[in-house]
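Quick one, T. Sequence first:
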Amino acid sequence: MKKFALLSLLALSAIALPSHAAEREWANYKSMVEGLRIDRFYAVPAAERDKIKLYISVRPVNKDIKPQDVVLVVVSGAERQPLPPLTPDYRLDFGAPNPRWMDGATRIVTTMADGEKSAIGYEGLVVLPAGLQWNYATIMGSVGQMNNAIKNMAGAMRWFAPSVDVVVFKFAKPATLKVGATEYKTNARNMIILKPDAALMKANPLMVVSERPLEAELRDE
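Structure tokens:
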């Protein structure tokens, strides 16, 4: 599976902080936002990205580092604001950039040891409405939204940008998903993988699941 990576391997400088000896600088906030083009994603009108949720994947090269070991804190002058903890899948819910921290002096510090490197990329999830049934276009339209957002983030390099092709529904146990009269069953990994269909996007039938997915991830094929 490809990640929507603009930086495949981010080795960030290590700067000791006198008041928090266990911490080191991980990134300059403004440089990270602009380098990963996070600001360009949130510049897309909200109605054109309402079906998707963007996460930053932070995967330490050292496999012994667990998600809970990665603590990231924004430091702006005397202000300290922890970023959300990584999910079990090493995802960071970074959110929209904070304009107050785009001054060039705000830093992100970490407790990860000096010299540790992390692979940085993007992961997009579908925003699943409540319940067990949804309109087809509401869910599968997320693929087009994500691809449009990726192109916006890539700017002049949009023709070389990666793309997503499918929605991967992940379940805790074997499950089924019906699209109209067609029923799909989970594979050996409790996943159902669907590619948008133009005719179904127009007809917009109901999608009905036997149980709520853990998540629906946007991926390439």
